[in-house]
Each structure stands twice: as C-alpha cells, then as structure tokens.
Write a structure and sequence with these properties.
about 230 residues; 12 strands; alpha+beta; single chain
Amino acid sequence: MKQIQKKIFLFLIFTIANISVAQASVTYNVEGIFTEPNAYNTVFTGTFDWDGSALSNLQGVMNSSMVFKEHEPNLSLSNNLITSLDGSIVTASIFLNPNSVVFADGGYDATVHTFPSAPFDTRGFAPSPNPENAYFTFSFDTVGGMLTPVDITTSMEYGDCTALGMMGSLCMTAFGDVIDPNASRPIGEGTMAGYSSSLTISAVPVPAAVWLFGSALLGMLGVSRKRTLSV
C-alpha cells in the first residue's frame, strides 16, 4: 500500500512541476495594421510564445492588400524566425519562405534602398528571379515584465513580394509614419504610400480548466500525504 501511495505522490509532484514549467512560457496574440491609402489595409495577425527572455513559435497570417481585404489573409508566415535583443527591446521577423531573401539586395528591410547609387527611390525592388517571399517585423519593450509595443514608426514593417503583392518590379511594403500629418489624405513611405498604423500585443488567457486541474492535483497531493503519514 505504501508503495502505491509513494508512486501516486511522485506522479502528482511530476505533473504539477510540468504544469508550472508550461505556464512559465506565455502565449501572446499580436496584430499589426498598416494603413494603405491606395489599397486595402495590410493586417498581420498571429501568436508567439515568450518565456521572459526569449521569443519563440511566432506565426501568423497576412493579406496581399492589393487583392485581399483586411482580415482576409492569403499568406501564412511561419518560417525562418529571426529575433534580436537590444537592451530591453525585442525585435522579431517572420517569413513566408524558409529564408530571409525578400528584396533585390538579398535582405528584408523595406526601408533600405535596394540600389543606393541610383538617383531615384529604389526601396522594395524584388530579386530576379523572384522567390516570392514576404515578411513581417515588429518590436516590443520588456521593461517591468510587460510586453509593450515600441514606436511602430521605426520598428514595424512588412514586405510582400509574392505574385499578388507585385507592381512590376516593386513589392508591396509599408513602414514609418505619415509624411505630412496635416495633409487631408495622409500618405506614408511604403510602395503605395502605406505606413505603420497600430500594433497590439496581448496575453492569451489561460483556460480555467488548467487552473482547476492544478488545484485538484494539489488537493489530491495533500490527501495522499496525510494518508501516508497516518499509516
């Protein structure tokens, strides 16, 4: 009998420990919206895990805004996660393809001129041949244990070089702020005047069943220990 109680006791400890470890990593929802004055707005909606020091499992969906409306995604971004940490600021990028080659310069920064020596704006040019990649980049601050979006005009951007995101040799992009906030029709620096509009990050609520299960296990653990001590 004592052996059975001992096994139950060890099983309960192991199970509760696993629940605690699982809860150490929190899942978050993330939604980034780009205003597109000359197309549908581009929206990235996804999730990621944060364990207090590292971001993982970032994945989400996004729409090619020249064809698909907001929240009508046609692109699934879940490959080649790239993260960086600068002080308390975390930056993450996720891609359509299993690599980071998006633009003609071999990179994925829509704010960089593809051909720096050209006398005209060369941001957002696709490679030739075009691998039809797409990406989304965002940042947040971890000060105080809270995940707070940082200035989206300098840290959030996207690029879409898929067939439905192309205008000749140019990919759809959006980043930065509006060029003239006092204009009657705000425009940004993206390919079709798109700009970063909003970023929302929120923790996914833990199901009540998980907490009830944990409480039940703790109760069983207490009963088991009392019975063991009384034998």
